[in-house]
Specification:
Structural class: mainly alpha
Distance between the termini: 23 Å
Low-confidence stretches: none
CATH class: Mainly Alpha
Radius of gyration: 13 Å
Number of helices: 5
CATH topology: 434 Repressor (Amino-terminal Domain)
CATH architecture: Orthogonal Bundle
Length: about 70
């Protein structure tokens, strides 16, 4: 997400303004301190301009078949 945000020419504060949230939330998501649900992924993709399906495909490929929840 960081690379996509930077590629879009957005700082964390810029993204936070687009999302109507605090910059600290963006920082926590980017650092891995906070996970996002599927709806948030779609909102982030729209705000930054990336394909959420590509992200899901990457996650699916990297997830072990017996991964536990």
């Amino acid at each position: 997400m960081v690379d996509a945000r930077i590629k879009a020419g957005l700082g964390q504060e810029d993204l936070a303004i687009k999302l109507k949230c605090h910059q600290s939330l963006v920082a926590r998501i980017e650092s891995g301190q906070r996970r996002v649900d599927v709806v948030e992924l779609v909102v982030l993709a729209r705000a930054i301009g990336f394909d959420p399906f590509e992200v899901l495909a990457t996650v699916e490929a990297a997830t072990e078949p017996d991964h536990r929840i």
